[in-house]
Amino acid sequence: MVLAHIGGLPDSITSRNLTNNCIKCFEIYNYIFSVKFTVRTAGSYKISVMIGSSHIAGSPFVRNFVPGSIDSTKSRLVRPANTVVCCASAATLLYIEPRDEFGNGCTFKRDIDAIRDFQVKVYDLNDVRDEKLSDAIILSYDKVNLRISVTMLFPEPICVKACITFKGQLIPNGSFDVLVLSSSDTTLVHKNISKRNICYEAKLLNIFSQQKSKCSPRKVVCYIGPKQIVVKEKILKLIPKRIATFRLCPSTKFIFLPTSNLSQYGPVFVIDDGSQPKIEIASKDRNIIAATFTHFLLKNIGGSETFKDKQDFFYHEVRKYHSNFYHEKLSLKVNREKILESSMKATKGFSVSDWCGNFEVTFQGEQGIDWGGLRREWFELICCALFDPRSGLFCSFHDKQQALVHPNSNRPTSLKLKHFEFAGKIVGKCLYESALGGSYRQMIRARFTRSFLAQLIGLRTGYRYFEHDDPDLYLSKVKYILETNLDENDNLELYFTEDVYDASGQLVKTIELIPNGSKIRVTNETKNQYLDALAQQRLCNAVRDEVDSFLKGLNGIIPDNLLSIFDENELELLLCGTGEYNISDFRMHHIANGNSPEFRKVLGWFWTAVSNFNQTEMARLLQFTTGCSVLPPGGFQELSPRFQITAAPTFGNLPTAHTCFNQLCLPDYEKYEYFEKSLLIAISEGTEGFGMV
């Protein structure tokens, strides 16, 4: 048998990963063998071609691969917030990270090569490009940090929009507002940060509900604090009446509007948090209000809106919040066959302090000492019992394998609201354990709907969530309504109602989406309002009690203001980690214990087998070795302890694992086929249960 297997220093190279095609031909006994591979991560690679256990002449071959050309979709602008606050005549720095199509940081021999195809465009609030202001933003290449510096230096106070493009295409995060303050306003904003509450007078121009609601401009006061911004109107100049309250979190946005006939009251802006009607305000102190808000926001999220920085800040604040509780061992005895019922019974009456304890899990009827592996398996099993659609507590909108799960309002009668509260506590417990870091880190084995995640952080749901959560409904109904002219289609009579059917298809009831909705026909002008109301009913109102119970359990351990610093996509990454398994990341962040010729042979076979694993097989390998099928957000690099591959002192047996130490033990084998078969049997049939021989 001739085995051509490919190993590398930082990356795996397989016939499945096609990037930079490289072919090396070898002539052996009048045969030519082509070894074709590609590289996703730049670096130095070692290519081994062997006959049995012997290298062919010249093997291993060492090849170096450099990053590819810049890809606008992978490059990104690193900036602290959606609105960048500057001081007139003072330089402000942002950075662009140029990357190729696989995320490698691009390098350049000449500075001009790095910035040649990047372009900065500056627009006023009327979306008119200003060439003169564009010259106030200068690009330069930072060779030390392999990034492009964006230096902004505006001579006078102004509010503009900026866009950074590469070859005419906007880069991610490349569009943002620039608020340039005078030196006196900058000083005032910094003084505001040290205060608890600041207030400024303004004029309330409009309140937006489903449709724009016109109102006469009236005097209001904007109160800005570290946690929220409140707009109040004083009745009879004495009694304050709250108009709106917006949480001070990244989902709350300031939208700066161009000059209008209402600008006699000052510059106009809109405040929108995505969960309640937005409001339109005019104030001569607009810049101070927006800049103070931005500074408070950055302070609340640790100074940066990047996910990694927010994650670090979140973990720090969770540890600080529970600093009075000790992570002491707390025995938890559960029944594997009745994992949900026995776990709820075992934790009944637990205080917050108890939930912050270090659970030492014992499965009834099984031998095993919990050094971390049993605890991780318990988390895996309890999450499966709670969030698997087959359990009934959560459901999916379709039967596809990768369907997202949503709270089930039509759950079996045996499942109560207390089960949702318990599910919230389990998620809170996992977040707390992850905040402790190291081997305590726990991920949730579930993929939640975007609308459910949005509700956890206080965002309003809209019809666009159907595209991710219920793609069948989106394609069959929502997309059709959006593309159809309802005013010209007499055959389609839509009213502001929602019909509810039972499992047999019988109409149970009709719900009015708005007051008197059964009498209000949907028109072309109001179809967006109808679809948003439909999403609110299906995705939100129908499961209001379930979501509230889940939040009751979750917020008992994790404060809601900390979760609100993430958007729904970031929250999923925080909760569930990554479902994508990068082999190059795996190869870079593992430990191999053993140096014998037999172990090196088996280790090479291991990488050959793993390089051909699909996502399910990789998940099973990870679960077999670590007790959890999901990686932390940072991938294998954040796995603690590191994934270890060790030689087992046996021959021909099945591989074994020690989940407490994330250790995989590989015996020796006579042939690759025997090794691969044994590995697949082990990870497929040995992922559950602990015992002592």
Oligomer: single chain
Q: How many beta-strand runs?
A: 32
- Helical element count? 20
Strand content: 25-35%
Q: Give the termini distance in whole angstroms.
A: 38 Å
| Overall pLDDT score | 84
Spatial order of the strands in the main sheet? 19-18-17-16-22-21-20
**Structural class label:** alpha+beta
Major sheet size, sense and barrel closure: 7 strands, antiparallel
Please tell me about this protein's structure.
This protein is an alpha+beta fold and 693 residues long. It has 20 helices and 32 strands. A seven-stranded antiparallel sheet has the order 19-18-17-16-22-21-20. A four-stranded antiparallel sheet has the order 8-10-13-12. Strands 9-15-14-11 form a four-stranded mixed sheet. Strand 2 and strand 3 form a beta hairpin. Helix 3 crosses helix 4. It is globular and about 85 Å long.
Question: What's the helix and strand layout?
Answer:
Blueprint (H helix, E strand, L loop, with lengths): L1 E3 L17 E7 L2 E7 L5 E5 L1 E3 L2 E2 L5 E5 L10 E3 L4 E5 L4 E6 L13 H5 L2 E6 L7 H4 L2 E6 L4 E6 L5 E9 L2 E13 L1 H11 L4 E11 L3 E13 L3 E8 L3 E9 L5 E4 L11 E5 L6 E4 L3 H15 L6 H15 L7 E6 L4 H8 L5 H4 L2 E6 L9 H15 L6 E3 L8 E3 L9 H20 L13 H7 L9 H4 L1 H13 L13 E5 L5 E6 L14 H14 L3 H12 L4 H4 L4 H9 L6 H6 L1 E4 L3 H15 L3 H12 L16 E9 L4 E3 L4 E6 L3 H14 L8
Parallel strand pairs: 9-15, 23-24, 29-30, 30-32
Antiparallel strand pairs: 1-5, 2-3, 4-7, 5-6, 8-10, 10-13, 11-14, 12-13, 14-15, 16-17, 16-22, 17-18, 18-19, 20-21, 21-22, 25-26, 27-28, 31-32
